[in-house]
Amino acid sequence: MRKILIASHGHVASGMKSAVKILTGDVSALTAVDFYVDESDQTPVVEAFINSVGPEDDAVIFTDLLGGSVCNKVLTLQPEKHGITHVTGFNLIAVLGCLLSDEPLTPAVVDEVIATASAQLQRISVEPEAREDEETEDSFFA
């Protein structure tokens, strides 16, 4: 069984789960843990997730910031001892890539997903000439 946990500061994790639901319709493999939204400690939720992963499972934990407190809490729980891959600095492409991959989530497959997701992060802009061409009266009524 594929199991993915997303842990973040604030509501980023539940927001990511919401986006995945819109795009895939199925979030049964996802667990979202929002840290610091109230006074409760979410560490037991992460521990329960880690303990639920068996040897037959593919599991990944995503955290939002390398060196952030959520990432560091997950590190102290040593998910790798349970065969769980920990990825930090996630984006939607990375989560979808792991969720929808047909391959077992080996470290090599997760590295490929990370490379694809990283390539999607880039600055884009429309050249001023292109905007002027699009804004003519002829193109408006075309």
Detail the topology: elements first, then pairings.
Blueprint: E1 2-9, H1 12-24, E2 30-35, H2 43-52, E3 58-63, H3 69-76, E4 85-88, H4 92-100, H5 107-119, H6 128-134, H7 137-141
Parallel strand pairs: 1-2, 1-3, 3-4
Helix pairs in contact: 4-5
Please supply descriptive tags for the structure shown above.
Rossmann fold, transferase activity, 142 residues, PTS_EIIA_man-typ, four-stranded parallel β-sheet, alpha/beta, elongated, PTS_EIIA_man-typ_sf, 7 helices, Bacterial_PTS_sugar_comp, PTS fructose transporter subunit IIA
Would you kindly provide a written description of the structure presented here, covering whatever features stand out?
This protein has seven helices and four strands, in the order βαβαβαβαααα. It has 142 residues and is of the alpha/beta class. β3, α3 (69-76) and β4 (85-88) form a beta-alpha-beta unit. Helix content is 46%, strand content 17%. The radius of gyration is 19 Å and the shape is elongated. It has a single domain, classed as Rossmann fold, CATH 3.40.50.510. It has a four-stranded parallel beta sheet with strand order 2-1-3-4, with helices on both faces. It has helices spanning 12-24, 43-52, 69-76, 92-100, 107-119, 128-134, 137-141, and strands spanning 2-9, 30-35, 58-63, 85-88.
